[in-house]
Amino acid sequence: MTHAQSTLDNYIQQGIESNQSIKQQSFILEKSVYALGEAKSMFLPNITFSTTYTKADGGRTIDFPTGDLLNGVYSTLNQLTGSSSFPQLQNQSILLNPDNFYDAKFRINQPILNAELGYNRKIKSKQIDLQKTEILLYKRELVKEIKTAYYNYLKATNATKIYQSYLTLVTEGERVNKKLFENGKINRTAVIRSQNEVSKINASIIASQKTEESAQYYFNFLLNRPLTESIVIDDITTLPEESQLPNDNISNREELSKLKISRDINNDLTGLAKSYLIPKIGASLDLGSQAFDWKFNQKTRYYLFGISLEWNLFAFGKNTYRIKQSIAEQQAITSQTDYVQQELLTELKVRQANMESAIAQYRAAQSQLKTSQTYYSDMSKLYKEGIKIYIELLDAQNQWIDAQIKSNITLFDTWIAYTAIERANASFNIQ
User: Fold this and answer.
1) How far is CA 199 from CA 17, 103, 164, 195, in A?
2) Tell me, what's a Pfam family for it (predicted)?
């Protein structure tokens, strides 16, 4: 029994590791982790480099009367000094657009107070938890499918073995009846009945083998293996232990965890909507150089430091509507949580009732198996002594084989019902 469960656990691990849907969800989780890293980086300084170069001609000008202001003074100075040291100047027309001018700088921005960034980081972090829960939900559903498929395969293989064992019995019966008929000790009816019984069991074996193949294909499909790959067979002959039966607790269900995380995310969204009440404060620092004709020296270099404050004081009710939307969504999630919790609890109760019914069916089948086996043994002895006819022996054989098949079916139906309970209260420990 322990070995059987160990084999099944290994298959479950293989299925989880090879499942494509889980791999896709893992990629989405990886994306969410990167999104959180991006949200955290928003708190760090942002450094950019920019440069502009301007070549201009024409446009507005400023007229500066340099000649009118200074030429008279310069002429007087030249007369007093008897020289021409002071030349005559032309009036200047200065172009407003900078010509052959560059401005290159590094800008450093650092947020000091920004509530939006804080809420964004919280939301991204919870989205990771949400995706992890989604992956766990995929895994749990896959575990249930693998275990159910495994038990269905064992049910089919055991049924095939039972029919094959019975075929040996009825084939021997056919041989004996032919001998007895040839010796004139029985009539043709017994021979015909024994031949029909052989044909019927052969048909049952073929049907059982096809069911076995279908179960094999589906099991290997869940493990992402070649459909015809062989499956290790273990003997399961007893019911699940009573002490291992799962309890009524549904708090571990991933569906409820997802709703709880969604509620927490919505709380953060409400906080994000209210964050407009808190001003945004940031700092910036420019380190650069600007000059004409690509000059670069001590005089062209500069720095510019600044503090910025942004406060959204009025937006015509836009922020209020956002807050009301978040509150309405919160109420919807709370209502959905109550409904889902009741739904999951109902599912668990139904699964437990199915389990109790399966156990009762198995015990009844076991009792019937013992009775039919005893009946067949008695009829076999009486038939060999010539007291009973073959038809009566055949009836005992059919009751016995039917009891074996039903016992096999009810045994694995019990394990399937146990698996359903295990899924209903998320009690299986997923690695």
Assistant:
1) 45, 98, 12, 6
2) OEP
Q: Which domain holds residue 262?
A: 2-56+102-424
Residues 202 and 83 in one domain: no
pLDDT over 60 (residue 169): yes
In a domain, 431, yes or no: no
In this structure, the answer to whether residues 176 and 82 fall within a common structural domain is no
What tokens does 410 get? 């009810």
Condensed to tens digits (0 to 9), the pLDDT of residues 44-89 reads 999 999 999 998 887 777 877 887 788 888 888 888 888 888 888 8
pLDDT at 2 over 60: no
DSSP class per residue in 316-341 = TTHHHHHHHHHHHHHHHHHHHHHHHH
| Residue positions counted in the chain | 431
Average pLDDT over the chain, rounded to whole? 89
pLDDT value of residue 386: 78
Q: Are residues 43 and 73 in the same domain?
A: no
The reply to whether 429 falls in a domain is no
Question: Residue 116 has which token pair?
Answer: 């939006």
Q: What percent of the chain has pLDDT over 90?
A: 56
Tell me: the pLDDT tens digits for 46-55?
999 999 999 8
Q: How many CA atoms lie within 13 A of 308 on its CB side?
A: 12
Which contiguous run of DSSP H or E holds residue 248? none
User: Domain total for the chain?
Assistant: 2
Whole-angstrom distance, CA of residue 248 vs CA of residue 256:
15
Q: With beta carbons less than 8 A apart as the criterion, state whether 265 and 127 touch.
A: yes
> Rounded distance, CA 223 to CA 12, Å?
8
Query: Environment class of residue 401 by beta-carbon count within 10 Å: exposed (0-12), middle (13-18) or buried (19+)?
Result: buried
Residue 272: strand, helix, or coil: helix
CA distance 147 to 72: 109
pLDDT of residue 62: 81
